[in-house]
Design goal:
With 482 residues, this protein is an alpha/beta fold. 32% of the residues lie in helices and 24% in strands. The protein folds into three domains: 2-146 and 271-335, FAD/NAD(P)-binding domain (3-Layer(bba) Sandwich), CATH 3.50.50.60; 150-269, FAD/NAD(P)-binding domain; 348-477, Enolase-like, domain 1. The chain has 14 helices and 22 strands. Strands 1, 2, 3, 4, 5, 6 and 17 form a seven-stranded mixed sheet that branches. A hairpin with a 4-residue loop joins strand 4 and strand 5 (124-127). Helix 3 (48-66) crosses helix 6. The longest helix has 24 residues, at 82-105. Residues 7-326 form the FAD/NAD(P)-binding domain. Disulfide bonds join 43-48. Belongs to the class-I pyridine nucleotide-disulfide oxidoreductase family.
Length: 482
């Protein structure tokens, strides 16, 4: 048994683990990184990058299909070669992974421990059966994994997750997608546009991460016109039959329907990888999901020398969030016992569906819970259906809600679906982080003709509804929801 003593041990070699390792190294040379699987990031291997490659192929097909609306008529039938599509996806995916692995290769070999780490106590880690590590500080960066109901395992190899999609050599004929969240919407719509027969099922009416009922309903209505989408499905039976899966469900009219698909894609969420690392042997405080609680500004857990970062932290499972958390956790682990709060940026998330879905700052649900007793926030609205540039491009589908605070006029957040709203979301995230007011945002330049003019219309609508002034500020400060 090999025994090591180090200043900092980082558990995990993904986005958060690599970031935490590099951050801690700036404070002490005695840092190791432990990884039981392949080094690299979920984003590059099976997440944001390969999914965008699939989406890009789907967009190419869609551009051809909508061309007649402009009076442009492509000759002949569009042929989709699934093998060529997947070959490019995998080649480019491997290229992105290669860039990540180049960075991993630059890490000294003695700083990398291969194997799965398990807590013996608050300072001791056992790696498989070959190494025991005594660490003064520890960063948990073990990532997350897809989750689904256990009885779905009866579907065998007909049950797949997003990881499996990017290993296909060819496109299947049909897929049932369970979970219209970020992963489900992106992959489901892309596969549909590439000629795969897609049926999508959800529970509880959720569509993407949206919490604003009007935006969520618009998204459901719009996407369900393109492929069958049941956000609150009632599935009566799902079972393996031969080389497919038979599904019986009730449609929106309550009528029983039956389909047989090649695969069931489980996009029903992810769970932090903290359930098999021996947390029961530590004195860490855990939340209801069994995840260590942590201060979001320092990433410090209830055990002062243990930090957590990335998807394992049960906060926002996004790459830019994982990178920020990794830097904070790594720096604080490296400089411990000196702890400094790190920069946490305004929340921003994007679903690369078409139309795109995006959220910035505080969600509608958060604001409604906070201000429900006194109505201290207001909503500005714009429909993209008659927005100039959107109609020019025949992409005039969408709805944007912006939220502002009564009294101060401060911008609080936004939820939206619309054409290229990833760009609007970035503008709004910058404004939110700068704590700008709606009036200040309206003083910013808007070019013509651009989709962003729709944002200006929504801000003007909101500005006209806001009640400003000291009296309103004082009233809202007394809001019971505060």
């Amino acid at each position: 048994m090999k025994r090591l003593q180090v200043d900092v041990a980082v558990i995990g070699g993904g986005t958060a683990g690599l970031g935490a390792y590099r951050a801690a190294k700036r404070f002490t040379p005695s840092v190791i990184m432990i990884e039981g699987g392949p080094y690299g990031t979920t984003c590059a291997r099976v997440g944001c990058m390969p999914s965008k490659l699939l989406i890009a192929a789907a967009e190419a097909v869609h551009h051809i299909e909508v061309a007649p609306g402009f009076g442009v008529h492509p000759q002949g039938e569009t042929r989709i070669d699934g093998k060529e599509v997947m070959d490019r996806v995998k080649r480019e995916r491997d290229r992105f992974v290669g860039f990540v692995l180049e960075g991993v290769g630059e890490i000294p070999q003695q700083d990398k421990i291969d194997g799965y780490a398990h807590f013996i106590d608050d300072n001791t880690l056992q790696v498989d059966d070959h190494t025991q590590i005594q660490a003064k500080r520890i960063v948990i960066a073990t990532g997350s994994r897809p989750s689904w109901p256990p009885h779905w395992n009866d579907l065998g190899d007909r049950l797949i997750i997003n990881d499996d999609v990017f290993n296909w050599n060819d496109l299947p004929t049909s897929v049932a997608v369970f979970g219209p969240g970020v992963i489900g919407l992106e992959l489901g719509q892309a596969l549909h546009r590439l000629g795969v027969k897609v049926t999508m099922f959800g529970v509880g009416g959720a569509v993407g991460p949206l919490t604003d009922g009007a935006i969520r309903q618009y998204a459901a209505d719009t996407l369900s016109k393109e492929f069958p989408l049941y956000p609150d499905a009632k599935v009566e039976l799902m079972e393996r039959r031969d080389n497919g899966v038979f599904i019986r469900y009730q449609d929106d009219q309550g009528q029983s329907q039956e389909i047989t698909v090649e695969y069931v894609l489980a996009a029903t969420g992810r769970r932090p990888n903290v359930d098999k690392i021996g947390l029961e042997n530590t004195s860490l405080e855990l939340d209801a999901r069994g995840v260590p609680t942590a201060d979001r500004l320092t990433m410090q857990t209830s055990v002062s020398h243990i930090f957590i970062a990335g998807d394992a932290s049960n906060q926002l499972p996004l790459l830019h969030e994982a990178s920020d958390q990794a830097r904070i956790a790594g720096e604080n682990a490296g400089s411990y016992p000196e702890i400094q709060p790190g920069l946490r940026r305004s929340a921003i998330s994007v679903v690369f569906s078409d139309p795109q879905i995006a959220m910035v700052g505080s969600t509608y649900r958060e604001l409604n819970q906070k201000f429900s007793a006194c109505g201290c926030f207001e909503i500005g609205e714009i429909s993209f259906e008659n927005q100039g540039r959107s109609r020019v491009m025949l992409r005039n589908k969408g709805l944007l809600h912006v939220y502002g605070e009564q009294g101060t006029g401060r911008f609080l957040g936004a939820e939206m679906i619309g054409p290229n709203v990833e760009h609007i979301a970035h503008l709004l995230a910058w404004a939110h982080q700068q704590q700008m007011t709606i009036s200040q945002m309206l003083d910013m330049p808007f070019y013509h003709p651009v989709i962003e003019e729709g944002l200006r219309t929504a801000l003007r609508d909101l500005n006209a509804k806001l009640r400003l002034g000291d009296d309103e500020i004082e009233r809202c400060q007394r809001c019971p929801g505060e």
